[in-house]
Amino acid sequence: MKTASKVNVVRRPERFVSDDRRVITRFFATGGEDHQRAIVQRVLELDDAEVDALVTHLRADFSRRHRHIEEAFRTHYQSVKSYLPDDAELSEARQLLIGAYFTMEYSVESAALFNPSLALHPDQSGTKRGEARLLMSLRATGEGHISSIVFRTGMVHADGSISFDQPSRFAHRLRTQADRLYEKKLFTLKLMEMGAYNDTAGDILGPLPEHFTFHQLEDRISELAQGESVPAILNETTENLLWLARSNYHLEMPAGTDPSEVVIFPSSDNESRGIEDVRLTRFFDDDGTVTYFGTYTAYNGYRILPQLMETADFRHIAVHTLNGRYVQNKGMALFPRKINGLYHMISRIDGENMYLMWSDDVHFWNEAQLIQQPRYPWELVQIGNCGPPIETDAGWILLTHGVGPMRQYCIGVSLLDLEDPSKVIGHLDEPLLVPDEDERDGYVPNVVYSCGAELCGKSLIIPYAISDRVTTFATVDVNELIAALLENGERGAARRG
Fold first, then answer.
1. How far apart are CA 426 and CA 431, in angstroms?
2. Residue 2's beta-bridge partner residues?
């Protein structure tokens, strides 16, 4: 089955499939507090020889599956350390063993590997003329349908061919860093946006330095709670402050870690049921500085919350909440540069139509304009973006997704004016990609979907998911695509005239 549009689309043979051997470690929160105390006590009653033998066996058995297995044991031991008797002095082996009893493996992509977003790799050293190194994020889904973010790397070669590196056997969960600094001004603005700023919040934040850590925030809250006059709303205020702090965190990749080993697993309450559909933007600031932003959807089982990750090198990653009256729904995609001095974002505020948002602060979004509504039969249910707009001399190429009858998802394309992206100057009147016969079956049938393409030379490289199951690629000649977009745009304008 060919694509519905007249534009020539080349489907590539590459397939990224889930691998249930790629496992991370998680805290094994079995039972309640009494059960966990009992487990700790049972380990304390083991003799030293048995403890040493068990730890030796664990090292031999699991170091082949995890590059940093003892680090996980130590981390999880700290989580239950409070259950020890006050006078307990434990050997390192017994600490590791206690941690092991509260550690479990989790297969991050056992169910699916899908919804990819493609960008140029931050390290282009060693590439030859006509080559480019690629970085791709994917949504990995495992037990309980919990989603996390994983990465793959590859190369576009001078002859236009594409190759991807073999992923590492190991998977490593990035953990939040306790020394994350919070900017007091921004933190206060976010509290105000939440409607959670009050005199008690001011009393807590007031003495803190302009950039403070999570521990400093906790210490200040404790200091106020132990004072002579405890505010009546301290508990509610504390809950809001700690929720905001935990929702804005910092991740760090260990030195020497291959990007394909990295797993960004839910770390905050907002994300407890999954991190979904990162849209990567390689953003150029006015001074030429390059920052990678990733907009994504956090899900806690009850509500969704748009969030933003930010990094210069994918080794130090900051995660932020997004704020503003128009920070709603899924699928926000940031433009790769400012336009007329402002950040711009494509979004789907109402779950149905496509909007353009703009702001002078990447964290706050209070201005929006409707730019595109469902128009064609294949998108009459809803439309949205399939990743960040791509800049060309002719305008911004915007991949879109449309939902039609039988909940079939197709990928379309629009062209936005370069200096006024609220104007749609071109479009395809048929989808670029529809589910082919061998792409219709999967976890969610009849779906093709992308979270971001990349322009390399004359080729638009589109990674896309097949029915929320696996990921593949298609390529399109960008000049042919632009010609079709402009032709349809002019024809539509003539009809309206």
1. 13
2. none
Q: How far is CA 408 from CA 145, 297, 404, 447, in A?
A: 21, 22, 5, 6
Q: What distance in Å separates the CA atoms of residue 241 and residue 256, rounded to the nearest whole number?
A: 35
pTM greater than the 0.90 cutoff: yes
Separation of alpha carbons 7 and 409, rounded Å: 18
At a CB cut-off of 8 Å and minimum separation 6, what does 149 contact? 137, 138, 139, 140, 263, 264, 275, 278, 294, 296
**Number of C-beta neighbours around residue 399 at 10 A:** 25
Tokens of 29: 């929160």
Phi-psi domain of 275 (left: phi exceeds 0; alpha: psi -120 through 50; beta: other): beta
In the sheet with 333-334, reading across from the earlier edge strand, the strands are: 333-334, 343-347, 354-359, 367-372
Q: What are phi and psi of 89, to 5 degrees?
A: -125, 110
Using an 8 Å Cβ cutoff, are 227 and 240 in contact?
A: no
What does the block give as tokens for 426?
């071109």
DSSP letter assigned to residue 405: G
What are the tens digits of pLDDT across the range 121-179?
Answer: 999 999 999 999 999 999 999 999 999 999 999 999 998 889 999 999 899 999 888 66
Q: Which residue has the tokens 């919040």?
A: 201
CB neighbours of 374 closer than 8 A, spacing ≥ 6?
A: 352, 353, 380, 381, 382, 383, 402
| Residue 127: count of CB within 10 angstroms of its CB | 15
User: Of 103, 100, 132, whose CA–CA distance to 118 is shortest?
Assistant: 132
Is residue 224 a contact partner of residue 231, using CB atoms and an 8 Å limit? yes
370 forms bridges with which residues in the sheet? 355
Q: Is the dihedral of CA 174, 176, 177, 181 positive or negative?
A: positive
- Compare 169 and 337 and report the one with higher pLDDT: 337
What confidence tens digit (pLDDT) does each residue in 198-257 have? 999 999 999 999 999 999 999 999 999 988 788 889 999 999 999 999 999 999 988 888
Task: Count Cβ atoms within 10 A of the Cβ of residue 87 and give its class: 0-12 exposed, 13-18 middle, 19 or more buried.
Answer: exposed
Q: Which residue has the tokens 């190759």?
A: 163
Helix (H, G, I), strand (E, B) or coil at 72: helix
CA–CA separation, 210 and 181 (whole Å)? 9
**In the block, residue with structure tokens 């704020």:** 323
Provide, for the chain, the percentages of residues in helix, strand and coil under a 3-state DSSP scheme, each rounded to the nearest 5: 25, 35, 40
Neighbours of 107 (CB within 10 A): 17
For residue 145, the one-letter residue type is: H
